[in-house]
Design a protein that fits this description.
276 residues; alpha/beta; Rossmann fold; 9 helices; binds S-adenosylmethionine
Length: 276
């Protein structure tokens, strides 16, 4: 039996925010500890680590990358405040060094599943020649793991993994699975920074409920509306919010205990993982 491809896991209809710019991401990341710094700082630290090793490539993965704006801004000369000065300096001193940036975002349809959009070919991006950036459509589910995604893209190890307002969309079991796969994929000295794990105002709904919500928007009939109302009530109920938060905190604890090779900080809804 051919396994069905799962797409469209994220109810975009409810997301009123557009994909954040690099400046917006950095502001959000650095509002509270553990202050990861700028994107330039995070990337250049990995480039620095790689210089002098046998390797000449740094891999950066952005989970829940939306339209890929973070990468677009980073490699676009015309976006102010995102000059990536240190990364550019290191790359110009090391002409063989390459940076591969890969965004992962929910596939809206089967046709685009595992297909990528090249970001470096956009206008204004051509001068950052040692960097490639792409956005790939892939919906993470309990079956479609991050491990399988990386395998399909022939990425055995990742140096830097980011997730901005991403992890809160995942129900606790999937959250733990993605976190485990991410930590496993990190190279020694690699870093994962995740902002927004279980926000107060957004709680991941069980998949069957998000599907109901979506249906309601497409076929608004009274029966679906009643179901969707129940789903919405579930997701806004403080007891459920507390439960999801607690389950995620426990998931982080389990990952910490079973993966001692990772140094995991989890404060203020933010995750910072350093692979030893
Ligand atoms: C709130 S948006 C954040 C977008 C961007 N990182 C930002 O900060 O503006 C969450 C993103 O995660 C993606 N996402 C949510 N659940 C996902 C899943 N199961 N698999 C893949 N992507 C997912 C959504 O498609 C969406 O683009």
């Amino acid at each position: 039996m051919v396994k069905e491809i799962e797409v469209n896991q994220y109810p975009r209809e409810f997301d009123t925010t557009l994909t954040r710019t690099i400046n917006e991401c950095e502001r959000l990341w650095n509002k509270q500890p553990p202050f990861p710094g700028t994107f330039d700082k995070l990337v250049s630290a990995q480039v620095e680590k790689t210089i002098g090793s046998q390797r000449d490539k740094v891999v950066v993965v952005d989970l829940g990358s939306g339209d890929g704006t973070l990468f677009y801004d980073a490699i676009n000369d015309q976006v102010s405040g995102s000059e990536m000065t240190r990364t550019r300096e290191l790359l110009s001193q090391n002409p063989n060094m390459k940076v591969r940036m890969v965004g992962l975002d929910d596939a809206p349809s089967e046709e685009v599943f595992l297909k990528g959009i090249s970001i470096q070919d956009y206008d204004g991006c051509h001068t950052f020649s040692q960097v490639t950036a792409e956005n790939v459509y892939y919906s993470l589910t309990r079956n479609q793991t991050l491990g399988k995604f990386l395998e399909s893209l022939k990425i055995p190890k990742v140096d830097l993994i980011l997730g901005t307002s991403f992890f809160q969309s995942l129900e606790p079991v999937l959250f733990e699975q993605v976190l485990r796969d991410a930590v496993k994929a990190l190279r020694s000295g690699g870093v994962l920074y995740g902002q927004g794990i279980a926000l107060d105002d957004i709680v991941p709904m069980p998949p069957e409920l998000t599907n109901l919500m979506r249906k309601l928007l497409i076929y608004p009939n009274p029966q679906d509306r009643a179901k969707a109302d129940r789903a919405l009530k579930w997701s806004l109920n403080p007891t459920n919010i507390r439960k999801v938060k607690q389950e995620k905190a426990e998931a982080v604890k389990r990952v910490r205990q079973s993966m001692p090779q990772a140094d995991i900080t989890f404060i203020n809804d933010k995750l910072l993982v350093k692979k030893k």
